[in-house]
Design a protein that fits this description.
Its cofactor is [4Fe-4S] cluster. It is an enzyme of class 3 (hydrolase). It holds the Pfam family HhH-GPD. This protein has 349 residues and is an alpha+beta fold. The chain has 14 helices and 9 strands. A hairpin with a 3-residue loop joins strand 7 and strand 8. Helix 2 crosses helix 3. The N and C termini lie far apart (66 Å).
């Protein structure tokens, strides 16, 4: 089909020089695809280099501790990707002798690997004719064919997958899949797309109908939840503090943080000491309490906004499980905590 020929020709002339495009080794393709989910290439590239340097093979990643994996991932967000990455590496290393599945169907059975990632690995590594559909693909196809079906609806997911499959160059699936994603990233961009120099200028229906900026259509998200976090930054005379590892199915599972008191609203320095959760955290001890930031740090996640304040809690002694303040950088923490540690010299506060 003419669409795929034009697209691949554009790709071969315009593609970026990226490390994972110089190999078809499944481990490295898988690693790059997991990292780039919901992440810009510019942000993910340094992490890719760090991971391939620390873990050249899947066996190296499998042997690493979860804390080390999360520490290297720190700042990339969506930490469930890192946890799934580690679990899948262990499964491939221990159960599959380090050999990744060689087809879409079996790749999709791996933890953290969905339709998009399985399609990308299968086409790039094994030349299997399966179409990828990511945000870039949705944008290109919705504009080219002037499709207003919401891309995050069940109907939209099916419609765009079927269309991408129909357009796929069955002889060159790897080039086609990478071409349409690259075209969406560099040319048919979300804002200010390069329509004046577009190779599809004469056939793009959205351009013809003056709807480029209206597509793709996406259903609105639900209401954003507001949460109020109060972190207790303990300091002892021995320069110790307390870190706790988050567990459960909530955000930042596996990462470390200071003891947390979550309140229903922002409370004043006069009100906070009376909070039952705060009294429980200090265990009835006499402490010196200072609010570090009057104005909360706002940390925005996809479905919730966190308003965080840090309270310096000076105490003579801390439990045995406390950690040295000068070792805090060794622990994987949320970006919210990382930024605080860079700004505040805890031991000298």
């Amino acid at each position: 089909m003419m669409f795929s020929k034009i697209l691949i020709n554009w790709y071969l002339s315009n593609k970026r020089d990226l490390p994972w495009r110089k190999t078809s080794e499944p481990y490295r393709i898988w690693l790059s695809e997991i990292m780039l989910q919901q992440t810009r290439i510019e942000q993910g590239l340094p992490y890719y280099h760090s991971f391939t340097e620390a873990f050249p093979e899947v066996f190296d990643l499998a042997r690493a501790s979860r804390d080390k994996v999360l520490k290297l991932w720190q700042g990339l967000g969506y930490y469930s990707r890192a946890r799934n990455l580690h679990e899948t590496a262990r499964y491939v290393a221990e159960e599959l002798d380090g050999v990744f599945p060689d087809n879409y169907k079996d790749l999709k059975k791996l933890k953290g690997v969905g339709d998009y990632t399985a399609s990308a690995i299968a086409s790039i590594c094994y030349n299997e004719p399966v179409a990828v559909v990511d945000g870039n693909v949705y944008r290109v196809l919705s504009r080219y064919f002037d499709i207003d079906t919401p891309i995050n609806s069940t109907e939209g997911v099916k419609e765009f997958k079927a269309l991408a499959t129909e357009l796929l160059d069955k002889e060159r699936p790897a080039d086609f899949n990478q071409a349409i994603m690259e075209f969406g990233a560099l040319h048919c961009k979300p804002k200010n797309p390069l329509c004046d120099t577009c190779p599809f200028q004469d056939s793009c229906l959205a351009l013809k109908n003056n709807k480029v900026n209206e597509l793709p259509v996406k259903l609105k998200k639900g209401k954003i939840k507001k949460r109020y976090f109060n972190y207790l930054v303990f300091q002892s005379d021995e320069n110790q503090t307390i870190l706790q590892q988050r567990t459960g199915k909530g955000i930042w599972n596996g990462l470390y943080e200071f003891p947390l008191v979550e309140t229903e609203k922002q409370v004043s320095p006069d009100e906070f000491p009376a909070e039952p959760a705060f009294r429980e955290k200090i265990g009835g001890k006499k402490v010196e309490l200072h609010l570090y930031n009057e104005e909360p740090v706002v940390h925005k996640l996809s479905h919730q906004h966190i308003f965080a304040r840090f309270w310096i809690v000076k105490s003579d002694t801390l439990p045995k499980e406390s950690v040295e303040i000068n070792r805090l950088e060794e622990y994987p923490v949320p970006v919210l905590i990382q930024n605080f540690l860079r700004e505040c010299e805890i031991g000298n506060y």
